[in-house]
Amino acid sequence: MTSLGARVVLAASNAARKVGQSLDSLGKSMEVVKHTDRLVPSTRFVAVDGVTPTVSPLTAFVAPSASVIGDVTLGKDSSVWYGATVRGDVNKVVIGDNTSVGDRAVIHVAKIQGDFPSLIGNNVTIGPGAIVHAATLKDSCVVGPSAQVLDGAVVESNSIVAPGAVVTPGTVVTSGQYWSGNPAKMVRKVSAEELQAMASNAVDTLELARMHAFECDKDLEQLTKDEEAYEDATTRDPEYFQPSPDGAKEEGDVLGQGSPGLIFDSVLTNPEEGLKFNQKRKAAAAAQKD
């Protein structure tokens, strides 16, 4: 039987809840412009006029915060990095194989002032913050960070547009040339070392993209396990018992939960272990401050 005090607390709680609901209803009735908060849907892949992006199942990586919109074709081993936007709303965007679109880069098309798609070849590197607007980039070229390649321009194979350069509309960057400036002009020929670095960078970016794709595909359960494993590895005394490798069965295992001696060897059943653990954690924190 509940005590008088418990019944009083319960009655007061119910009364407070009813008062709060009444105030909430009163506030809603007084709203001039009603607003309902909604969850923002993912903008990684967005259809425009019923046209959805075509992404190869072998595409290396499309970042969670990137946006691939409308009539866009993305080839195998290509990557679209964090904050980048590839927008094929009024025309098409075609991106070949093993091409990377850097962080916050923008690829768009044109229809009003000229009918230009954006056509990007294989093994192309588009740097962070770059803009490719209704232009053509042929195989194995580089557009540097924050550079712009504008409507109708063509960047031919094995050429480099320097960081911050602006390739004006209709300009053709000839194969094997290095262009810089605003407006961009030919500065010199691309060296053999630069060509080798371009090829190497494309391979390195592909490996990095696969690593990011693996990490971004993890669910909450896996992320929690990773965090626990990291904390365990950084705090466990090497002289204390060690966890078994993944897939290995412990001696005396019970129902896949480990041996009884380890199941119950915790800070709850052995307070002295918890004290030792807290002392080591405090010592580690003090050492970091020093």
Compose a concise summary of this entry.
With 290 residues, the chain is of the alpha/beta class. Helices cover 31% and strands 22% of the residues. Strands 1, 2, 4, 6, 8, 9, 11, 12, 14, 15, 17 and 18 form a 12-stranded parallel beta sheet that branches.
C-alpha-based Rg, rounded = 29 Å
The succession of helices and strands, N to C, reads HEEEEEEEEEEEEEEEEEEEEHHHH
Strand-pairing-aware structural class: alpha/beta
Task: Give me the number of helical elements.
Answer: 5
Counting DSSP E segments of at least 2 residues, the number of strands comes to: 20
Summed over residues and divided by their number, the pLDDT gives a mean of 84
Termini separation (Å)? Answer: 58 Å
Multimerization state: single chain
Report on the structure:
With 290 residues, this protein is an alpha/beta fold. The mean pLDDT is 84. It has five helices and 20 strands. Strands 1, 2, 4, 6, 8, 9, 11, 12, 14, 15, 17 and 18 form a twelve-stranded parallel β-sheet that branches. The protein has an eight-stranded mixed β-sheet with strand order 3-5-7-10-13-16-19-20, with helices on one face. The protein is extended.
